[in-house]
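Hi support team,

I submitted a single chain yesterday and got back a structure, but I'm not sure I'm reading the token output correctly. Could someone confirm the output below corresponds to the sequence I sent? I've pasted both exactly as they appear in my results page.

Thanks,
R.
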Amino acid sequence: MASAKPVVVYPPAADGGRRVRVDDQFLGIAYGPLDIAEFLRRAGIADADAAYVAATGLIEWRGGGPGTWVADRDGDSA
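Hi R., thanks for writing in. Yes, this is the structure output for that exact sequence:
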């Protein structure tokens, strides 16, 4: 199922990294909101910063919001 939002941040892996995708393009692994902000800047959103990442409606957060960077107890990365 495709996301209705252009940016998808997947649940944290065991190391805390979260895959980031814009539309159909994989951008990389983020280890915090600043990494996501950098991916967004590279994708053309010049004013992206940690506050923007936390507040924007463009991001679909899977497995926890912008404050979640630890895998669940079972270590599932979903």
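A quick pointer for reading it: The beta strands are 7-9, 18-22, 25-30, 59-61. Let us know if anything else looks off.

Best,
Support desk
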